[in-house]
Amino acid sequence: MDETKKKKKKTAECCGYPISIFFIVVNEFCERFSYYGMRAVLVLYFRYFLLWDDDLATSIYHAFVALCYLTPILGAIIADSWLGKFKTIIYLSIVYAIGQVTMAVSTIHDITDANRDGTPDNFTFHIALSMLGLVLIALGTGGIKPCVAAFGGDQFQEHQSRQLNTFFSVFYLCINAGSLLSTLITPVLRAQEYGIHTQQQCYPLAFGVPAALMVVSLVVFISGSGMYIKTDPEGNIMWSVCKCIGVHTHTHSSVLSLQKLLIAQIKMVLKVLFLYIPLPMFWTLFDQKGSRWTLQATTMSGDFGAFILQPDQMQTVNPILILTLVPIMDRLIFPLIQKCGLNFSPLKRMTVGMLFAAMAFVAAALVQIEIDKTLPNFPSSSESQLKVVNIYNKTLNVTISPNKYLLIDSFEVQHTFKHTYFTLEKCNSEGDTDLYFFLQQEDSFPEGKKALYYLFCSFLKVGCEYYFILTLNPCLLESCCLTAVLLVSHLRRDFVLRHGEQWCEFSQKFGFGASYTFLIPSTVFSTDVCTLSKTEVEDMKPNSVHMALQIPQYFLITTGEVMFSVTGLQFSYSQAPKKQAGWLCTNAVGNIIVLIVAELGKLPKQWAEYVLFASLLVAVSIIFSIMAYFYTYIDPAEIEAQIRKEQGLEPEEKEKETLEMEEKDEGQKNDQEVKKNQDIRFVKIRLCWNMLIYTL
């Protein structure tokens, strides 16, 4: 059956809408939940599960996002030239679902945790599995991106133009609903504790729920298969452009005249693409809200009193502000500027949007400076941190060669930094015989690694002899282990100490990012009654800078997004309708820039990197404003009408030709129907992309 007959196929309707579009809408909601839910916790998975540093976690995150914005080109080529939209969505959704499941499996630490210490024994396995999953996800989500909305538009008949507009509005709402809900829910799932042998943050659940939603998305879409209007591949625009160039170069002028419209469109596209050159820098800053800004939030307090906000939940501020600012800008700000007589053209709006993004990173730098004031002094890559804990009931003198001396009171802690090789010479108590010992670090650490040693000086008197107990963390002497390390995800925890039938309990409130050492004397169970007199040592102070301070930078970056992204797509459609792939490529290039800076920049302070990005965007916005000043706006419809006029096809004549063709044989009717459907499809796709501008 040819395309024309497929378009004539009668479809079941409900309230004037094709029933098939309900499957598409549910499919899109589940897919967006799956993608944004996985992406919300991705950088923290890199940082705290795979134990990568901030720079590597940021680089891999942006490499993944860049790939997600490059693969739509591949998906469009496959759909237009080979499989068609329906089969492309099915096949790439299967790849997508496999990727999500693979990613969820890679987060199960018990798979390789043979010694049951809560840490994977084979990180290579988890890294390889997660990278495979991310590649499959990027192929899937990017591949179906240009197909789903256009496929939904294909389901409507000519008399359903009103329903078509409503469909795209609902489609857009589903995208935002999926994004907003997943960014709220998956961080909560991640913060839960799970584990067969040890309790860890629940990354398998945080990635497993998006994987399940992707499977549901695929099942729902396949369920509506029998109701869909499925069009055949129409040929790829890239091939048409190349063929047009070949015609322009080698063929007769009479054939060339048939290609004048396409040639004019190509010129419009190239003119707009030239303006795209500076645009990736905006996305370089914008997409860091999912990486650098999330990592910044991990060093802040999320205690809002009534609720606790996880660091990766701060990203929800962006979609909430989008839903708020878009109508305010469209209905209030822009009309007000126009009434004031100011020429706030689309390119000027985009320039201002870039400046807002730069201001957002200046705000982020100021917040980072405040955070840095509260952070502890961490050891450098060539140092170790030694923590000496005195759990003896007298003051201890500790000598660390060559000339480091520590005087530690009873039940106190002191920290010191030493280079990789160090010797601890003497640890003695006042009034007692000096006890000498040597701690020699024989093996150097791998480059870039940092170590934190806990040294516990304790004396046990047995008869007339003293025994010195030395314990490193993790404990080397299991029979006399003096410490345990526990990661706490809640603000308050209850602790129970048990010895036989005796037990003691106490409750402790913890601050975000803090580290504590509890010194519990052995006399706690010396009597039948619990006599707990613990000593609490605050090794690292809790995060004191509140996450609410990130709201101004989110407000600035979202304002910039509305003025840059929304206006940019509207401008591009008004100047060159066939530019979608180029716009997605600017996003991909922007993420690649972040990757390069994160790996090669290596700035000592994070606030300096924020200032660097802000400065680069200001410089780029100046260049863009100069390019915009010399840009001449065009009217594609007017150019098309002029070309048609030159070819002798006036609008009235075209209408007359249409009426005459409807009275001819069936073959001529089919040709005319195909032409109409091509025009309708173009209008549908254009409307579709205008409604999806916020997904970028």
From TrEMBL:
Residues 650-673 are annotated as: Disordered. The keyword Ribosomal protein does not apply. It is found in: Membrane. One of its GO terms (cellular component) is membrane. GO terms for biological process: oligopeptide transport; protein transport. PROSITE patterns: PTR2_1, PTR2_2. The chain crosses the membrane at residues 33-50, 56-77, 89-111, 123-144, 164-185, 205-229, 268-286, 320-338, 350-369, 466-488, 581-598, 610-634. Keywords: Membrane, Peptide transport, Protein transport, Symport, Transmembrane, Transmembrane helix, Transport. GO terms for molecular function: symporter activity. It is a multi-pass membrane protein. It comes from the Eukaryota. PANTHER family: OLIGOPEPTIDE TRANSPORTER-RELATED. Belongs to the major facilitator superfamily. Proton-dependent oligopeptide transporter (POT/PTR) (TC 2.A.17) family. This is Solute carrier family 15 member 1a.
